[in-house]
Amino acid sequence: MQTTIKLTVNGRARTVEVDSRMILADMLRDQLRLTGTHIGCGTGNCGACTVMLDGRTVKSCCVLAADADGADVLTVEGLYTSPDDLHPIQQAFIANQGLQCGYCTPGMILSAKQLLDANPDPTEDEIRHGISGNLCRCTGYHFIVESIQDAARVLRGEASAPSASITGLPASPATDVAG
Amino acid sequence: MITAELQFHRPGSVAEALELLARHGDDAKILGGGMSLVPTMTLGLARPEIVISLNHITELRVIAEDAAAGTLRIGGTARHNDVIASPLVARHAPLLADAARHIGDMQVRNRGTIGGSVAHADPAADYLPALVALDASVVVRSTRGERVIPAAEFFIDVMATALAPDELIAEIRVPSQGTARGAYRRLTRVEGSFAIVNAAALVRPAGSGASVVAIGGVAGAPVAVDASTAVSAGLTGSALAAFEDAVRAACPEPFEDLNGDAVYRREMAVIHARRALLAAAGRAAAGVTV
Lengths: 179, 290
Ligand SMILES: Cc1cc2nc3c(=O)[nH]c(=O)nc-3n(C[C@H](O)[C@H](O)[C@H](O)COP(=O)(O)OP(=O)(O)OC[C@H]3O[C@@H](n4cnc5c(N)ncnc54)[C@H](O)[C@@H]3O)c2cc1C
Ligand code: FES
Ligand code: FES
Prior knowledge:
heterodimer; A: alpha+beta; 5 strands; B: Uridine Diphospho-n-acetylenolpyruvylglucosamine Reductase, domain 2; 4-stranded antiparallel beta sheet; binds flavin-adenine dinucleotide
């Protein structure tokens, strides 16, 4: 069954026709070509598919796209405007080597944002609990925790953002797809 | 990927959802937070022909108090994090928030609902023993009317409840804890996984009802053990030992799996029941307000 949904993705109003079987993660990746949202397990365990739905992190493999009608979705692509203007959390992950293969990174960054939105000065323990829904097979988590601590200092205005940019990002991610 | 064709509905009111349920009954599945249902559909273990989402019915997510009746009313689609953050839950049933804080991870708590957890009835779910200890009721509705089912009767066996196919969980009704004090303890190996065993204790002051510990993860449904005698004897020596024996007797055939055999689970049930009971009694003695 096809159904039409209207939602906001990274600040932009979208009208999308989806199959009622489609999960939100597939809609973001395949229909909107926002491939920063990854799919690891597809069953709610790994957190690679984490996006923000109405301001709160969710696992987008457990949300039916058809159920996201009216929602406000933020993906990792919505955090930056250009490769030279990354979000402080993204900059901190690059500067602190908070990633290796990068598969978990978009979800990790959104979980970090959820944590820091509510708790600007978390303890290490709070950070580890805050990202417990996101599995990383590469880093051993330590540099991820340091990245989040670093980002927290920047967001609190106690440190300036490390200069970090990445190559290969589309210039204007939130507006690069028609529809 | 979900392969089985499905018809999706997102009703805007309870009445509309009940009509759909009445019409489609057995072929339909209610969708709450989707944290359990969507993965089972992805894995092909559930193949509902019709999915009815409750996520667009604002009235179902409300948490309210009924001061006259002394009850807390939690809407069926209240997210776990709604329960954790609610000042009304903190005032009337802090034991429930204690249990909810242990559920899964942040994303699961942001999306998963109390109604979904209760309907799914995983024997190790965190809410279940807390609801039994609190003497809560599950309010279910269909076009046939409303039923108010005590939690202790609602949970029947592993993922089996008193819910009929045309009913939905509209509300969880919890008598205010009042002067009773609660505590929740769980055993788990890895954060984010279900408990192996869990225990919710509610200690009531003398003369205001029974003290109880409800234990999950050992049987198909939560097991409640009366702790009144142990509490009035000061939770020491033989009174505490008698309570522990009662817990052992109440768990005759605990589950066995990779997390532990029956003997291990039974002893873990005893330890966590004791810890929860001592913690709740400690709060009661200290006059802690939550
Ligand atoms: C990674 C992970 C870890 C988890 N860890 C824990 C944990 O540690 N402790 C714990 O307790 N739980 C845990 N859970 C389960 C979680 O709490 C789920 O949210 C819950 O079991 C199901 O709630 P839901 O709202 O997501 O329901 P759904 O997945 O939408 O539905 C589950 C079932 O309930 C039915 N249903 C849903 N809502 C209603 C309603 N209002 N009325 C009638 N039927 C309804 C559905 O038809 C379906 O059969 C975990 C889940 C995941 C994915
Ligand atoms: S892909 Fe969604 S949690 Fe793993
Ligand atoms: S960096 Fe590879 S999974 Fe986390």
